[in-house]
Amino acid sequence: MSNFPSALRRLFRHEEEVPEEPVTQPEPSADEAAIAKARAYLEQVRQKMERLAEDFAAGRVNPTQFQELYAHYQRERKAVEEALEEAPEAAAWRAAVAEGESMIIRRRHAARILGYAIYLNAGGAPIRTVGEYHVDARLLASMLDSFRSDAEEPLERQMRSIEIEHGRWVGFVPGRYTTLMVLFSVEPARAQLDMLRDLQAHFERANQQQLARGMTDPTQLVFPHAVVFE
């Protein structure tokens, strides 16, 4: 009897030392893998839609880009969801999506710069005109008048864009001495207007001495606009 506990302990110790057989998980079937990929793609589309809303709020895309991209993502989402309902075991959902199309839409509907002009605030005489720039002289005069009347308002608040004929837009960026006007193919994104604001500030800073003395000969001025627009 005295040896029984020792034998029992040896038995249990032996059982504890025996490694357990690894539990093998069955490999997912082809159907399950296809469904998982489709659901992962749907999640990517949802994230793209959220980022698009953030991009518009931050001014990185214009209204046309937002509408077209959102419609594109919604079509993709609906197509994949319908494909999963009709044939969840198939990978046919991939035929319903077009890789790279969102970038094409973004570029297609981006506001293109058609031309620009720089005018003196005093008198409205043009210093430089480049590209396809045809803006009604009355509109130009009224905008310059409004900038002069709002002289007390910070310049960044006077920056604006308005729609003109044929769906084109004009961006107005006033400075201390001059006003930059840019003709766009469609409504520009706010980020594009912010870029124009910086460009106008750099132009006036670089030419401050000449502009302050009334020197407006283009050959005596530097134009950072050429690097960006031309």
Describe this structure in words.
The longest helix has 28 residues, at 30-57. The chain has 230 residues and is of the alpha+beta class. Helix 2 runs antiparallel to helix 3 (63-86) and helix 3 runs antiparallel to helix 4 (101-108). The protein folds into two domains: 26-108; 113-229, Longin domain (Beta-Lactamase). The chain starts with a helix and ends with a helix. The protein has helices at residues 4-17, 30-57, 63-86, 101-108, 137-149, 155-158, 190-206, 208-212, 225-229, and strands at 113-120, 126-131, 160-163, 169-174, 178-184.
The gist of it:
This protein has 230 residues and is α+β, with helices and mostly antiparallel strands. The chain has 9 helices and 5 strands, in the order H-H-H-H-E-E-H-H-E-E-E-H-H-H.
Keywords:
2 domains, 9 helices, five-stranded antiparallel sheet, Beta-Lactamase, 230 residues, single chain, alpha+beta, elongated
Task: Please outline the helices and strands.
Elements: H1 4-17, H2 30-57, H3 63-86, H4 101-108, E1 113-120, E2 126-131, H5 137-149, H6 155-158, E3 160-163, E4 169-174, E5 178-184, H7 190-206, H8 208-212, H9 225-229
Antiparallel strand pairs: 1-2, 1-5, 3-4, 4-5
Helix pairs in contact: 2-3, 3-4
In whole angstroms, how far apart are the ends?
A: 103 Å
The strand order across the widest sheet is 2-1-5-4-3
The CATH class label of the largest domain is Alpha Beta
State the shape: elongated
* Radius of gyration (Å): 32 Å
Largest sheet: 5 strands, antiparallel
Write the CATH architecture name of the largest domain. Answer: 2-Layer Sandwich
What is the overall pLDDT average?
Answer: 79
Low-confidence stretches: none
DSSP strand count: 5
The H-and-E topology, N to C, reads as HHHHEEHHEEEHHH
What is the chains' assembly state? single chain
CATH level-4 homologous superfamily of the largest domain: Longin domain
Total individual domains: 2
Structural class, please? alpha+beta
